[in-house]
Design a protein that fits this description.
homodimer; alpha+beta; 47% helix; globular; DNA-binding
DNA sequence: CCTATAGTTCGATTATATACGTACTATCAT
DNA sequence: ATGATAGTACGTATATAATCGAACTATAGG
């Protein structure tokens, strides 16, 4: 039996701004989003910063549920990307604002 | 003896984007921010939507701590405003993005 | 001075998140 | 098949946050 051949990614229309803000308000997740903004695509392990796999898995799940990250399965790795265009369409300017902050 | 003659409002430079996002991610607080964006200035009671005073006081405290809201004491009322300019300077585009969302 | 009003503070409860070890699943290489 | 690798799922512990009643503080008005 096979679970996890592919992921469910929510329609951005069903994601509230509160939901998105909450997902972005965690330092670990914000860091993931920042890296995906730069690196375009990365495996979970590439972004873990030494944190345990189960913790990272949790954060990726939250990011997916908030419509922010897309994950595709590529062999043994799960490659993540920012859902830039869709997020920008649903929440114009949000990612620019969040990712543009220094300090 | 007198506490509470005036409020402490943090310098925006000390507020992180995570902190601001967290403050905005709560529905009650986001609603407060939305109303302040329209009404310019309002007392706590004017924005309570029927919720208990102690709950509202908590949310205003979080908003103040995140540098988003300024409160001045005017007699028996505490009048709140959005710290628009300062927040815009620290997090350009954030409030526009958050307040501009429909649905 | 007494009372009403607007908010705060305290404290307890409950809900929601985070963190992460362990066990499990899927894929790939040998 | 075996073993290695990447990540998920589950369970539990812990931390953080929301809710709100009750007691308190400050101000205004009679």
């Amino acid at each position: 039996m096979s679970a996890m051949r592919t992921y469910q990614h929510p329609d951005l229309a069903t994601v509230t701004i509160e939901h998105a803000l909450h997902a972005l308000s965690d330092p670990v997740r914000l860091d993931i989003v920042r890296q995906l903004d730069r690196e375009i695509e990365a495996s979970c392990a590439a972004l873990d910063g030494g944190r345990p796999k189960s913790s990272m898995s949790h954060h990726f799940r939250v990011l997916r549920a908030a419509g922010l990250v897309h994950t595709r399965i590529a062999g043994v790795q799960h490659m993540n990307t920012l859902r830039r265009e869709e997020v920008d369409k649903r929440f114009p300017g949000l990612l620019d604002a969040v990712l543009g902050v220094k300090g």
